Amino acid sequence: MKKIFSVLVILCWLTPSAFPQGQPGQPGQQPGAGLLESYKIGFITRRLNLTPEEAQKFWPIYRYYTNEKRQVYNQYRVDRNELGLHEGLVAVQKKYSVEFLKAISPGKINDFFRAEEDFNRLIQREADRRRMQGRRFPPGN
């Protein structure tokens, strides 16, 4: 019970930093992006079963990781180079697999990359389902 409470406290502590800065609808900001990011943080926290100490070290590194991935995707939007996109994403994963070692075990690093893929597939399935039903996605819009 104490472990669950600790994880929930950390999740609540991290959630405000997961929301994008500024007002919704600003240029460059996806509607509902903060809500999806908070879902992703909760999903990954549960899947990795992070201790409070691990979470405190892991999430700041994760923010740098997601920023670098975002830069790779932004570059892809400019040059439409599929190979460059995949090489860039692999380079970011390799770089941050070393950085994540400062916070979590090697086994949890592999679990993190799997959990991230699983979350993305889950979101894609939900988006497809909602499109089929004629509802908007992401949630909250």
> Mind telling me the C-alpha Rg?
16 Å
By helix and strand content, what is the structural category? mainly alpha
Q: Overall pLDDT, averaged?
A: 83
Low-confidence stretches: 4-27
Ordered list of secondary-structure elements with their pairings:
Elements: H1 2-18, H2 33-48, H3 52-79, H4 82-100, H5 106-133
Brief account:
This protein is mainly alpha-helical and 141 residues long. The protein is built from five helices and no strands.
Description:
- This protein has 141 residues and is mostly helical.
- It is built from 5 helices and no strands.
- Helix 1 packs antiparallel against helix 2 (33-48).
- The protein is globular.
Fill in the keyword field for this structure.
141 residues, mainly alpha, single chain
